Sequence to fold (372 residues):
Amino acid sequence: MGARAKTRQVPALRRLAHPGRTWMFILVSVLVAVLAFVLGTQVRSADATILDAREQVVPVYASVENRSVTQDIRIQGEVVIGDSYRVYAKRPEGTERMVVTKVVAKPGTEISSGMLLGTVSDRPIFCLMLEAPLFRDLHTKDSGTDVFRLQKALGVSATGVMNGQTMEVIREMYAKAGVLPPGGKGAGSFLKMDEFVSLPAEKSTSVVRTIAQIGTELSDDTPFAQLGFGASFVNVRASVSEADKIKLKEQTTVQTPGDIALTGKVVAISDFQSEGTTAGRPPGRDIRIELPKESELISGQIASVLFGAKTEPEKAVPTIAIRSDAAGDYVMRRAGNSQAERVDVTVTRNASGWTAINVKELEIGDEVLVSS
Fold:
């Protein structure tokens, strides 16, 4: 039998049942893809919008103001007080407690001989400026150096004998205080040492620094008042450049950590000191600021002194508005159509972020460019 050649048959391609629909599907898909691409180019993320905003420059303007521009200098120093004297009361006879019943003197009051400070348990406490303290009670006809000094302090004839004139002055002091003198109004009157405070006569300036309030119950260890001799002051060390801006008799503000603010006055400016201070301040000039009489600051207390007298209000702009070039200082003033024009200025001083300027072309309320 002869072998018959086998013929392999290739399957025929299937024909699309609906070719029109197929082409329609393809066309729609292409259109959707194109539309999606176009829309994608138009839509941006929030982050992209923020980035664009950051790149935009918005000009910022500030108004020309009428203000005082003060060149302040702040230096820390230490409080130094003059000599002080504490006044202690003695319990009056016939009383059980020492209670402040009247206060006449106030902090800052200057002391004079014969002055009444106040009363404790209705008995007075007077001040006497004496060359030596009293050491006994004094009665009529008593004599001695203590009587002589007392008479000098009271401004009467200094005979050294407790005479009628001297006793009359003593009775007048008690009468002004509204209190009977020891021994009564008559010939039995005498000076009781416990009711007089003896203060050194050579102290030229004596003031009341503190005094207890009415109703305060005193003890042997609780002073009725504290008196001061000589002015209190603050010492500061200023650099050469700082000292050049500080003037004698200039008013200052003295501040302490306890938020106490006092007005001081520059009373001394030293020559250049080549050595630093024990507090670590570099070489410079020592400035002494006198404190007011009513100051209650404590010796050794740290204080901050603010120098810089107030100036009259003048045209001023924020310091960042000042620009400079080869022609000098100027500002950019807002003009029409959101444009800015150059205006030349003369700078007079800077302080606290503001600059005082001298210029006729600018008016209060004009706007100048501070950033762009």
